[in-house]
Amino acid sequence: MPTFTKCSTTLMVILTTILFMLYNYTREIPRISAPIPPKLWYKTGPKGLSDQSESWLRECLHKNPMHDTQILTDETGDEYVSLHYAHRPDIVYTYLGLQIPILKADFLRYLLLFAEGGVWSDLDVSCEVPIAEYVAREYRHADVGLVVGWEFDVGWGDNFIRQFASWTIMARAGCVHLGVVIDEIVAAVRSKALVWGVGVEGLTIEMVGDIIDLTGPRRLTGGVLRSLEKIRNEAVDMQSISSLMEPVLVEDVLILPGFAFAASSNNYVNGSGVALVTHHYAGSWKNHRGGEM
């Protein structure tokens, strides 16, 4: 049986105190999560790239030579989701079941960014500056996990619904806010199917209501804001993130002014800042099928 001397007891107390201090010190160190990786995501439809889309894409690649670029098709998108979300059969079932192309395209961008991070860009978007400039200099050492820009923010009067642009989104892998968006889409799609008494594969564009609300910009906006409210345990002060002329960081979400991603959708009386991308509004999904014809 071991004998404890006064010396050994004192030593144990000292060691215990040191370990306790180290434990609490490491708990207090700010943990900066993984950065947003240099990945650029696109997806083509059945017709592939148009000449104009290819031109915009090449221009963007030229401005971002260090980015790993992935261009998915309908088939490779299905394969990606099946592989990377095998642990979430509810997601796989919902995604593969959807027969409306725009719903799948919306859903896919959130799934890609949540799985691996990077930048999603629609094919009708041109890059005006390198992606490295999307995050303003003063925030480049901050813990930024999601970058979104207002689509509608300035010049719309008082009675309008603000929403983030979804044609360009920047995020790190595992972004908790996109996780909320994904879970909400799964629940909303299942709810629509239940109301109509069909499987997910039986949903038509007439059944799903406003696509913008179901999977599009308002779903993105609402999901991100609800996620922030849950983290902060209080409502987001909309006044503090509206009518922006400079980026605003809320927790780890960097919200850009309307001119950054959607200059043509906002009206600045006294001028604006630099447009980072230009959205050319191809609108290939605006038909009775919800996708390329």
Automatic annotation (TrEMBL):
Keywords: Membrane, Transmembrane, Transmembrane helix. The chain crosses the membrane at residues 7-25. InterPro entries: GlycoTrfase_DXD_sugar-bd_CS (IPR007577), Nucleotide-diphossugar_trans (IPR029044), Och1-like (IPR039367). Belongs to the glycosyltransferase 32 family. This is Initiation-specific alpha-1,6-mannosyltransferase. GO terms for biological process: protein N-linked glycosylation. GO terms for cellular component: mannan polymerase complex. SUPFAM superfamilies: Nucleotide-diphospho-sugar transferases. GO terms for molecular function: alpha-1,6-mannosyltransferase activity.
